[in-house]
Amino acid sequence: MTTEMDAEAAVKELRATFSSGKTRALEWRVSQLKALLKITEHHEEEIVQALRSDLNKPEFEAFVHEISAVSAACKFALKELHRWTKPEKVKTSITTFPSKAEIVSEPLGVVLVISAWNYPFLLALDPVVGAIAAGNVVVLKPSEIAPATSSVLAKLLGEYMDTSAVKVIEGAVPETTALLEQKWDKIFYTGNGKVGRIVLAAAAKHLTPVVLELGGKCPAVVDTNIELKVAARRIISGKWGCNSGQTCVSPDYILTTKEYAPKLINALTCELEKFYGKDPLQSNDLSAIVNSNHFDRLARLIDDEKVSDKIVYGGQRDKSNLKIAPTIMLDVPADSLIMSDEIFGPLLPILTVNKIEDSISEINAKARPLAAYVFTNDKKLKEEFIKNVSAGGMLVNDTTLHLTVSGLPFGGVGESGMGSYHGKFSFDAFSHKKAVLQRSFAGDLSARYPPYTSKKLKLLKALLKGDIIGIFRALFGW
């Protein structure tokens, strides 16, 4: 699939399927969601092996973070689908009396999902669940950087799904470029801001709406009045326990006070050794870096002369196995490479402030992140953090777990993205909310029609103001 002609043919076939109306049927949507669920239930080992091949991802992370998450999304959609598709009743006013109003959710049509490599199974299928639940036809473009998972997705969706409505198109930049040349009814992209801008520019040519799930430098503020061991374990889980830091919501840097930093570093190093041993490069529980290009990029961050003497833990690497040990740095300069962009790896700088309250202004001086974390028992600091820090999502006293709450939207703000999904928000992301007002032929008000008179204007003014007494006065000439 390397030419625009091929991409155009695929979109044409999908549009014909959508025009037939079959994807609007609730029965079709249910059948396809059940098919996705079967993939997670019957092909767990195959998916785990693909994730191990692409990222050396431990089976624990493969199942918990990817397979079970897709399964949960399918089950939740199947449970709630009837309620989501039911028209939502809306109150009307005296202006339209007698009438009834409702919001009808309808599918957008032909949608494109471009997924990322760091969670190549989850980030491919999670948006697809929402697109199918909403009644759309879909092209899924998996990431070529995770080729084993891309191949498994193409194979399994080809076997289980209705291929006249759901297509997987593999490939790299030429294929993605050809797809972006087509007219879509929605584009859903997960990845980095550089490519996000390309997607947005391509979508603008056709006035296509987009969801961009990007990233950013997610901060974690650590106060002094906390259960330090628990906090350290939760930071490690969200950083190194999530794909070795190759996660858009992983803590990118920590802010704490100068006095507390040594205690925090000691707690982190103690727990890291419990989790990954004295030689973390030998641990089977630490994911590898996805490829040599990303390994070299991270190595340059470590070797930057502005931070090379700031390493307080870790720093070891093994290029042959694409592994970098958990690495902690203290008080790296603001103009260092590691602070210039999202790290997306197992490196964690700790920045210090004089007062913990100063961390809020430090965060707000940077672009708005996809997630922000604070560890504290101080009620005032919690309130100030929630009120004054702008981020896609926020979590108090833990990391990353807000993604698992189906009732919360997941998405960015500013440079960390636009639009959101998860749970009903996934359904809404791929739906048009159509306003419907229904009236009978009764109750036709002559005052709305010409010729306009002072009496008619008086009545309409009273109606539009909701002035009941004024309405009676106008009607009876008082």
List the helices and strands and how they pair.
Elements: H1 4-20, H2 26-42, H3 44-55, H4 59-85, E1 88-90, E2 99-107, E3 110-114, H5 122-133, E4 137-141, H6 147-160, E5 166-168, H7 173-180, E6 186-190, H8 193-204, E7 210-213, E8 219-222, H9 228-239, E9 253-257, H10 261-276, H11 292-303, E10 311-313, E11 317-318, E12 323-324, E13 327-330, E14 347-353, H12 358-364, E15 371-375, H13 379-388, E16 393-396, E17 410-411, E18 417-418, E19 420-421, H14 424-429, E20 431-439, H15 454-465, H16 468-476
Parallel strand pairs: 3-4, 3-6, 4-5, 6-7, 8-9, 8-15, 9-14, 13-14, 15-16
Antiparallel strand pairs: 1-2, 2-20, 7-18, 10-13, 11-12, 17-19
Helix pairs in contact: 1-7, 2-4, 2-5, 3-4, 3-6, 4-5, 9-10, 15-16
Strand content: 15-25%
How many structural domains does the protein architecture include?
A: 3
Radius of gyration: 27 Å
Which spans have pLDDT < 50 for at least 5 consecutive residues?
Answer: none
Largest sheet: 7 strands, mixed
C-alpha termini separation: 76 Å
Kindly provide the name of the CATH class of the largest domain: Alpha Beta
**Pairing-aware structural class of the strands and helices?**
alpha/beta
Global morphology: globular
The DSSP helix count reads 16
Q: Return the CATH topology of the largest domain.
A: Aldehyde Dehydrogenase, Chain A, domain 1
Share of helix, binned: 40-55%
Largest beta sheet: strand ordering = 10-13-14-9-8-15-16
| CATH architecture group name of the largest domain | 3-Layer(aba) Sandwich
Mean pLDDT: 96
